[in-house]
Predict the structure.
Amino acid sequence: MPAKGSAEWKGDVPTGTGTFTAGDSISGGYTFKSRFEDGPGSNPEQLIAAAHAACFSMALSNILAQAGSPPDSVHTDATVTLRLVDGAPTITKIALVTVGRVPGLEESAFTEHALAAKAGCPVSRALASVPEITLEASLAQ
C-alpha cells in the first residue's frame, strides 16, 4: 500500500509558511524558524524522526517475536540532526534510543536484535545515506 503525504509552501523562505499532511490524520505547519532556528511549529526532520522511531520499534518487535521473545513494548526515541555541510542543510546524524520490555530476555540478546532491526527496517534502509545512525538499546528495569 503506498503511503502518501503532501506539503505546500507559501512565500519566500525567510518569511513564508508551509503546511503538510501525512496520511489521513497527521498535519502541521512549519516555517524557517521552526526548521532552522528554535521557533515554534514542526519541521520535516521531526517527521523523519517519528517515521524512523515507528518503523524501528515495529521491526524490533517483529524480530523479538520471531525469536520467541515477544515484547510487552518497545519504545524508541529518534533525534535527527540537521547541519550545514558545504553550505547546504544536511541530515548528518540520527540517534536512536530504544527501551524494551521483554520478559525473560538478556540485555545482550536485546541489543543484538536491536542492531538487526536498525539494519533492516525500511526507514533505516531508506536513510542509509545519513553519515551516522547511532543506536542505544536497553531493557526496562
Remarks:
- The first helix runs from residue 32 to 36.
- The chain has a mean pLDDT of 96.
- The first strand starts at residue 5 and ends at 10.
- The chain has four helices and six strands.
